[in-house]
Sequence to fold (112 residues):
Amino acid sequence: MPRSFHPLDEENADESESEYLYTLHNTSSGDKGVIYVRPEVNGLQLKMELDTGSGVSVISGADYESHFSNYQLNETSLSQKTYSGETIVPIGKFDCEVVLNDQQQTFAVVCC
Fold:
């Protein structure tokens, strides 16, 4: 079944539309079929799952506390749901610089 995609643009978001995080993978059940990348996030290399169906980049609250708590966590109005429809309430977002394969981009990472 095709999934809709809503680009992340909080400044121009229509209040009636929701942003969705389409899939969450439970790595404790094995890493079968999972693709990992190792981007540098604000100077720290992290192992992250590549999810081409997600419109946002996400890290756990624990990873934020462990590695990025010195960066201000800002409120976010995103409404996120798993593919099965469960609601995920983000604790906030922070701006970061990401480098991967000689490409550099600055964007917000959502903490859940």
The chain has a mean pLDDT of 78. Helices lie at 61-68. The CA atoms of residues 40 and 99 lie 5 Å apart. The domain at 17-24+35-111 is CATH 2.40.70.10 (Cathepsin D, subunit A; domain 1).
